[in-house]
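Structure record:
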Amino acid sequence: MSPLTLKLDTVHLTDEQFYEICQNNRELKFERTVKGELIIMSPVGGESGNREADLIIDLGIWNRQNGLGFTFSSSTVFKLPNGADRSPDAAWIRRERWEALTPQQRRKFPPIAPDFVIELRSATDDLEMLRQKMQQYMDAGVQLGWLINPQQQQVQIYRQGQDVEVRNLPTELSGENVLPGFNLSLSLY
């Protein structure tokens, strides 16, 4: 099922109202676009959930070994500098950037763009919507992003200030200078 997008042209939710909607409807996943559109998503199925968990595990193990930052799951909503509220499937933030936030900012939806994001396309995700989401991440200051597309056996690599690179699976991905020493081997999904 595709996400439901509500165009709220005449209703402008405050950050606190958006937070309350999310807290009062924990069985649903909400995001807001730069334009203020409210996106309501259903939970993912077993295959996508398993793939997402594997990606978070790999990122988390790397992070525990080097201690350079903090890893986040798809349940985390980030209040991006461009006004969007987004939840990547996996995210990572450098330690000094995360620790610069106040405890209050860390408890709610952190007002920060991750340094690194992963979006994993599920069978029901619209590819163009995911590409727009990735561009919003980059516009907000994300340094490196991977859009993994098992349906077309590809991964799109987003880097700050560069054109999108498309690779066919299987491939080896590098965290480059954003995640030094992090390598992920993507076999055929």
User: Anything to note?
Assistant: The longest strand covers residues 144-149. The chain has five helices and 13 strands.
